[in-house]
Structures are given as C-alpha cells and as structure tokens.
Amino acid sequence: MERILEKLVNNSRKAIDEGVYDIKESLPNSGIDLGNVIVNSQHAPLITEVKFSSPALGNIRKISDPIEIAVQMVNGGASALSVLTQPYLFDGSPEFFMKVRKVVEIPMLMKDITIDKVQIDAAKKIGADYFLLIQSLFDKKMILEMDELIDYGHKNGIKVVVEAHTLEEFENACKTNADIVGINNRNLDTLKIDLNTTKNILEKSNSTKIIISESGIESKEDIRFLHKCGARGYLIGTAIMKNENIEQTVRGLVNSI
Hints:
Layout: H1 4-17, H2 34-40, E1 46-50, E2 53-54, E3 58-59, H3 66-76, E4 80-84, H4 94-101, E5 108-111, H5 117-126, E6 130-134, H6 135-139, H7 146-155, E7 159-164, H8 167-174, E8 180-184, H9 196-203, E9 210-214, H10 220-229, E10 233-236, H11 238-241, H12 246-254
Parallel strand pairs: 1-4, 1-10, 4-5, 5-6, 6-7, 7-8, 8-9, 9-10
Antiparallel strand pairs: 2-3
Helix pairs in contact: 3-4, 3-12
C-alpha cells in the first residue's frame, strides 16, 4: 500500500504536470508579518483553514463559496488564513485562494505539499504571504534542497512555515531560515493525532523560533493546553469547517486565552 507521504508528493507532481500552478493573474500579498501578529496578540492567534477535504477524514464540508467562509473566519477574529491549493485529496485550488485573497487583508498561507519552485512562483502570483514546507519530506530524502526552496521564497517576498512532527524533524526545522515552525500533531504516515506531540517536543526545546501547533485542535481547552506547552499560535481547520456557525466558533476559540 502506498504510504500517505509518498501519495501526497506524487499528487503534487501530478498537479504540477497538469498545470494547476500555471497562474496568469498576479495579486499582492497582505504585507503583514504573521510572526509579529502572533507575538503581539492579546488572545489566541488563530490560523484558520479553508479546507473541504483531507486524507484523514475525506469530505469535511460540502464545497461552497470560500469567500463566505473566509469572511466569517476574519469576522470571528482569525489572525491569518490557510487555504488549501492542492486539488487531490484536499479539494483545494489556487482559484479558491485568489478569491479569498481579493477580499481579505490579513496574512494568508498557501497550504500545499510544496516540492518545487513552480509552486512557490504560484504562491507569489496568488498573493500568499507564506507557503508550507514539510520537514519529513526532506529528512526522508523524498525531495531535496529545503534551504534552496526557503531562500527562493524569501527572494520572492514570501515567508515560510516549516512543519515538523518528531523531535528530530523539529530540531532540523529550527536550524533552517524558516520564519515560523509548525508542530503537526498528526503523524502523516499513520494519520493518527496526539496533542501531546507538541508538549513532548517543546519540553525538550529551547528554540527561539515562533512555534505554532497544528492538527487536532478542537476546543478552548486544547488551546489552553498547547499554550501552556509553549505554542504561540494555533492552526485549526477541521473543527471550524465542520461547524455551521464558523464566525461564532472562531470567536470562541480566539477568546480561549
């Protein structure tokens, strides 16, 4: 059986080959440093995610207007938005991202399995402030040259979130020029979630990087727990996308701290 990570990488290669990232339009990003927003936030800084499907859950929410969802998230107090641009398994698209970019002013993360500069070029054109790199893809030699991709992003005015799941991946991520390091509570090989992943890693870390926790965050209690562990920001998708009242859900989570 094909491992999930291998499948995700192959899906990105397929999307590249099919021209998914061939963007004609060019939009500006917000120009806002999410790291500063996170550090200076008086409440829980949320990166809320527009995500209709995932490998772990399949369909999360019926595909609808991403603008309506994004506006509700912003009105609820989200500090930033993550929008899926990967079509396979996630039902995302650069078009969804651009629709949202045109109506919101807060920072936006292009959420994808980034393996090629072509995708970073697309991130610049669609107005992304940040793009995602997954540390394990580089540690497992599934793709090479993380530093080159980070530098390429920076030269094009885009910041980088590097995501880790294990202590070794986290330490490697912190050695890079990543602007933000994310701890994914989900094991991408097994898709199992454990919020203690963030706790266990940060107990052993003295990194000065801005750290966010990702995946499996569902409640105010979860955010308070992760905050005590040392996470500074919180990426939340499924728990919000499953809820009928997105604005109210986001507001409640933001006010958990």
